[in-house]
Write a structure and sequence with these properties.
alpha/beta; 7-stranded mixed beta sheet; 4-stranded mixed beta sheet
Amino acid sequence: MIRKFLKTKARSPIARRCEDDKLTTLRQKYELYYPIAEAQNGTRVTIDGQELVMLASNEYLGLSQHPKVLEAGKAALEKWGSGTMGARSANGGRGFHRELEEELASFLGKESCHVFAAGYLACMASITGFAQRGDIILADKNLHSSLWDGIRLSMAEVERFSHNNPQRLRDLLEQLDPQAPKLLSIEGIYSMEGHIAALPEFVEIAKEFQCFLSLDDAHGIGVLGNQGRGTANYFSLTEEVDIIAGSLSKSLASTGGFVAGDASSIEYLRTHCKQSIFSAAISPSQAACARAALGVMQDEPEWNEKLWSNTKRYKQLLEELELDTWQSETPAVPIVLGDRERAYYFWKHLREKGVFTVISTAPGVPPGKDLVRTAISARHTDEDFERIEAALRYAKKKL
C-alpha cells in the first residue's frame, strides 16, 4: 500500500538518456559552450561580469555596429514590422527579399540568388537543392556539419576525399561510374583550419569529370576577392563554379544565408528544396542589415584592408610564440594544442587574462588536432592586441 503512494513516474529510455548523458554533464561542468554575454561593445563582450576581448567571432569586417547597418535595420523594422510570418513559397515573400537577392547575385557575379532564414539551412540547401538518390556526392572530409547534413538528406551516394587534396579527388573519380551524375562539395575557406580551397585544381577536375561544383563560401565572402566577393572571385573562377552558398551572419553583419547560381539552378532549388519551401523567410531588419553591409563592403574598402593588416599582425605574434596555426592562410586562425587537456587549459588561461576564444576537440577536429579557434576582425584595436598578446604569452608559459 505504501509503495503505491510512493510510486514515481517511469522514465522513458529517451528521457533517461537525456538525464544521464555524460557529455552533457561534462559540458555543463566545464562551461565550455553556450556562454551568455550581458553586454557587447565593438570587440568587447561582458560575460559573468568580466569584460573580454572577443577573439572568436566570425564578424570579420566588424560591421554589425556600423551606423549605416544599424540605421537600415531600424528603418526596415519600422516600415515592415518584425517579420513576414510565413515561408517564401507561400505568403512570406516581400520586396526586400528580392532586392537583397538581386544585389547579392550581382555582387557575386551570378544570375540569381535565394536567401534563407539561416546560413546552416542555405548550406544544406546547396546540396539538397540539387543532389538526389542515384547521384554521387564527392565531399572533402573536413566539410562543415551543415553540408554533411545536406548530404545525408539528399539520399545520394557519398564519397569522401582527403582534405583540400585535388589529386585524391581525381583518383577517386577515376574509379567511379562516368555516367553517374556527380556533385562536388567543397568550401572556399575552411573555418576551423583557416585553409583556402585549391579551387583552380578542383575546377579543372570538375570540368573534366562533369561534376556540378557547389562551393560553401560562408567564410570567404568579405574576406577574399575584389571588395570581398569571395573565393571564386579571388581565383577569377566565378563562372566555373555552379553554386556559391554562404551566410549573412559573418561579414554581412546579419543572420540568414544564401545560395547563388545561374537562373535555372536557383529556380530548380526553389521548386525542390525543403529548406526553402518549409522555412520562414528572413525578417525585414535581417535583410536590410545585410544589404547595408554589402554596400559598406563596396564603398569602404578600408574595412577589408584593416582585416588583413590585423591578421598579419596577429600571425606574426603567433609565429614568434611558436604556436601551431595549422598553416592558416586567413583571418580564421586555429591554435593547435594537440590534445584535449592542453587545449582546455590554454583556453582557460586566455579567459583568465580577458580574452574569449572557442575550444574544439576530437571528433569535431581530427585526432591530434585539438585546438583553440581564434578569428581576427577589422575592429580589433591596438588596446585589444595588447591584451591578446599578454594573454597568449601567459597561456603559452602555462603549457
